[in-house]
Amino acid sequence: MKSLMIGVALVLGCGAVSVARAQSWSPPADGQRCPSKWGAGDQRGSGNHMKAESVLKAARLIKTGEVFEISHVLEAGMPISATRRFDVHTKRTVMNPQSNRRGSNEELVVSEIGQVGTQFDAFPHQTIGDSLYNCFKLEEIQTRTGFTKLGVENVGSLVGRGVLIDVAALKGVDMLPDTYEITVADLQQALQRQSLALQPGDAVLIHTGWSKLWGKDNARYMKTCPGIGVAAAEWLAKQDPMLVGADNWPVEVAPNPDPQISLPVHQIMLAINGIHLLENLKLGDLAGKRVYEFAFVMQPLKLKGGTGSTVAPIAIR
Amino acid sequence: MKSLMIGVALVLGCGAVSVARAQSWSPPADGQRCPSKWGAGDQRGSGNHMKAESVLKAARLIKTGEVFEISHVLEAGMPISATRRFDVHTKRTVMNPQSNRRGSNEELVVSEIGQVGTQFDAFPHQTIGDSLYNCFKLEEIQTRTGFTKLGVENVGSLVGRGVLIDVAALKGVDMLPDTYEITVADLQQALQRQSLALQPGDAVLIHTGWSKLWGKDNARYMKTCPGIGVAAAEWLAKQDPMLVGADNWPVEVAPNPDPQISLPVHQIMLAINGIHLLENLKLGDLAGKRVYEFAFVMQPLKLKGGTGSTVAPIAIR
Amino acid sequence: MKSLMIGVALVLGCGAVSVARAQSWSPPADGQRCPSKWGAGDQRGSGNHMKAESVLKAARLIKTGEVFEISHVLEAGMPISATRRFDVHTKRTVMNPQSNRRGSNEELVVSEIGQVGTQFDAFPHQTIGDSLYNCFKLEEIQTRTGFTKLGVENVGSLVGRGVLIDVAALKGVDMLPDTYEITVADLQQALQRQSLALQPGDAVLIHTGWSKLWGKDNARYMKTCPGIGVAAAEWLAKQDPMLVGADNWPVEVAPNPDPQISLPVHQIMLAINGIHLLENLKLGDLAGKRVYEFAFVMQPLKLKGGTGSTVAPIAIR
Amino acid sequence: MKSLMIGVALVLGCGAVSVARAQSWSPPADGQRCPSKWGAGDQRGSGNHMKAESVLKAARLIKTGEVFEISHVLEAGMPISATRRFDVHTKRTVMNPQSNRRGSNEELVVSEIGQVGTQFDAFPHQTIGDSLYNCFKLEEIQTRTGFTKLGVENVGSLVGRGVLIDVAALKGVDMLPDTYEITVADLQQALQRQSLALQPGDAVLIHTGWSKLWGKDNARYMKTCPGIGVAAAEWLAKQDPMLVGADNWPVEVAPNPDPQISLPVHQIMLAINGIHLLENLKLGDLAGKRVYEFAFVMQPLKLKGGTGSTVAPIAIR
């Protein structure tokens, strides 16, 4: 199918643009992308931006101490992939026999806890074939109980300058349309409108408005979403961020406008460039108050060998 | 045994102090402890200290940007209560059919995730009979899938001044002895030695050295531990902290020297005073570098109706 | 509403029947129903029918050796209560390092395994207030990990004469109407039509045809169902069966025609009379071939302290 | 490698014993073992013996109706592989709001339910490299939620002649020694002592006495065990049984006397010959009463795509 389309393009004398359209994006070969810019064997990728300077830069952005909780509550009614669960079973109260009548409660949670709610993607989450970030190979690092390399426990807290890119506001809408692909120009214009420039090490959060559907129309929330595509992802990767997040479920547009490829931004960010993703953010308050630059703080759980972590990040100004 | 001791005390004409020692501590009646000082119906307790001022105070303590991860890795080999689990099942890789060969990984976690690893206790965790913090009643707020009041999702990120009280250093040991009860004098002398005074809203972390056993002698780690007792807990509660944490599993001494009562500090802090607890901290680096005052940042997961959350807090100086 | 209707009935001089209709069924007091006819402290109830004679009676009914599997497959697409799960996670293949290249597979199942699919109800499953079969009390036998009395592990295999009562065939339909309450007369006429009489110790299986919806219209299958009501249940209990089963989810009609009561047949059978229930049977083959009398064999799992067991019973003729 | 070693052995004139020691058993190539004797594409293997005749043969063995429960209770204190769980969480009682005060109980079970307790092995459980029974390939039939072929739901109830081979009694011991390999001669002599001959389609159960350790010394129970080795397994496979079971955890001797191979009998039975295994049986009562021939009945759960099932089989005489 692919080669047929290329053939037709050539016969018809279509130009480079048409050919590019006809061809699907495909991930680079291992040799083209490895070792990563952070060095052979590196497991931290964009997490390497987390350093004392990054913390100091964030601290300097704290002016009023106002905190914005930018994660959703983890609860039964939240949007969730059909293959994932978030089940909480409150155990029966245990009454201890001693005289102070101390009762204890706790809950069993059964969940893909690395990949539910507001969630942070670590590098084992996505592959290109059998190859992951920095060309670690599945068969070398997979076990039944986690990955021996690249696990989310390597990340640690991420603290740095946070920047909100409000594409919805740029477009003058509350919420971008279903399946809208955010372009490079959108990002650049939104930043210009906000009088901000990205810096290496930023936590870049994109406001699409999509989370207005959270808990209200979960079916629509999960079916598609507006978000960045291949071009915007490649541009963002060049800005060298600490992570890229959005208020939708995959950061990127879904489904991809090219039906032949599946969530390519996941590969571009996680596998190819070693840049973490942060999904299902709750950005309405930041956008509503036009808080575009802030201290970003996030603490992924140290799940040994984990593919990610549900998180509860904050923005502070 | 109890009545016998009281009888002897009376016969010998012992004063009130002796009688108090002979008698077990017992929790106050509901009428004596409710409403809490934070007001009837309050669900946040010591979490009310989390305000813009608390954040600004913390930010001012950030001088070098050095971050200390004070949580343990969540893994199979960690100490854990016999009635709890931390099981990670890495699901089989799904290879998506599209041309970009995107493979997806995720893990199912089965765990009392609110009560494993470095863990933060919310108020539904502990009762006095059928009564909880601010006299919410078990039968009114319990469900199969969480608590309708007091759940950890109400807490949000906690940012404030953190103070390490190094009792092990005061005593000139790496690790306090098994079942050692930390006294009020210990806390006061340790603070004096560190030239620090507690302030309302502090995140107070107590270094016992016990976490040296973590992952090395889990059986001993869980069997007993040094920690604060009733007297030190009541003194700490009067200092009005944001939370009290330690590098052992229950913050408090275990078992309690009085065999008739079970973990009374849990009731004193959570149920009576509405003060959060933070357990299984990793404080060796802070203590080793004598970092006694710092910015404390912690993000509990927003588990709706949850009794607590495993956490990954940091200290920043 | 209830007392008003009784008042009206008395004023109008209505007879006993009318009053009975106006009043909801209510369970007898403990003193009226305990000890059970099987003796104080008995935990087996109708399972006491399982004896050598019962097995011999069943064996004599085996004429051709033809086996009918009367359970459904346990799978993701089956009807299930909204509060229950049946999740299978096939673990990653482990390849053992030895020279014979032996790979091992196994699956983690997360499920209310006692109460999913074709399922057998043991006595801890249902209460009248805080009282269970033979007046065992909830607070005396409940633990976090099972019941100390009445657990399904006490039951063992049940082998006996099985009788199918085909009410759908009596009515000349494939499937009884939604919410149809099977009457005593229905049962008696169906037996007469089949030239059969019930005997003490029988496994009585009622064919409603409802399982035609299984896996095809799960929402309708679970929303309501035809089945026996209070009167038919009380009549069946007097026949002294080993168990009562049906090809619907609760054996009984749902919802009960009297909106003031919830699944009363569960209390009549399990709590009051100590008769086991067997739900979600697949009886189409038996009914289609008019197999009305057969050897019935069922092996509940020995889940210590369990409320029931998913099962895979058979009928043999 | 194998042929080379044989060549060397012949040249050097080494005896049969030496050659056998030098060479490890290795599984046959796919071409040598497929299609299975039950035909290409067959998924039932020895389960094909389950037919009306098998049932009639079993029924004829029922003389007194006495039932022997030959499975263990599923409970927390049972021996279990370190990588498996059997966790029961009794959910909080739900009290329904209607007037009949009906309370409901149920439990969440988290377990490798196909591979715990007295357990029946289906064919997806074991591989030779990437190849399973009848040369189905892992990559063709595996999914995250079960196997698309060979799943235990295909088996159905197994009813047939059961034969107990009491090797412990032959040896005049209660329990065979740790790591004792049962030989072909042992099986033959034990049968001769019992005046019995195996027939095609038999459920063959081997009594080693090992289950005396069950729940009493679980560590020893799981560490090693007496059982059949390669030679006895190959002899048994030629007898064409419906299944082979034992009162130990892997049916076979463990570890295998040849340290270069891992549980070869699993491959011989499941993958090569398509014969089911039945583990962790409780055979003390049968052996104690010298019940050597009986009706065997077992009902595996119909876990779609499952690798096996915990079971509660019975023997009837």
Can you give a write-up of this model?
4 copies of one chain form a homotetramer. With 317 residues, the first copy, chain A, is of the alpha/beta class. Chain A is 25% helix and 21% strand. In chain A, helix 9 runs parallel beside helix 10 (264-272). Chain A is globular. Mean pLDDT of chain A is 94; it is low at 1-20. Chains in contact: A-B, A-C, A-D, B-C, B-D, C-D. At the A-B interface, helix 4, strand 2, strand 4, strand 5 and strand 7 of A face helix 4, strand 2, strand 4, strand 5 and strand 7 of B. Strand 5 (107-111) of chain A pairs antiparallel with strand 5 of chain B, so a sheet runs across the interface.
Q: Whole-Å distance between the termini of chain A?
A: 52 Å
How much is the average pLDDT of chain A?
A: 94
Which band does the percent of strand residues of chain A land in? 15-25%
Give helix % range of chain A. 10-25%
List the helices and strands and how they pair.
The structure is a homotetramer.
Chain A: H1 2-11, H2 16-22, H3 30-33, H4 52-60, E1 67-69, E2 86-90, E3 94-95, E4 102-104, E5 107-111, E6 119-121, E7 126-128, H5 138-141, E8 142-143, E9 146-147, E10 158-166, H6 167-171, E11 181-182, H7 184-193, E12 203-207, H8 218-223, E13 227-228, H9 230-238, E14 243-246, H10 264-272, E15 276-279, H11 284-288, E16 293-298, E17 308-310, E18 314-316
Parallel strand pairs in A: 10-12, 11-13, 12-14, 14-15
Antiparallel strand pairs in A: 1-18, 2-5, 3-4, 6-15, 6-17, 8-9, 10-16, 16-18
Helix pairs in contact in A: 9-10
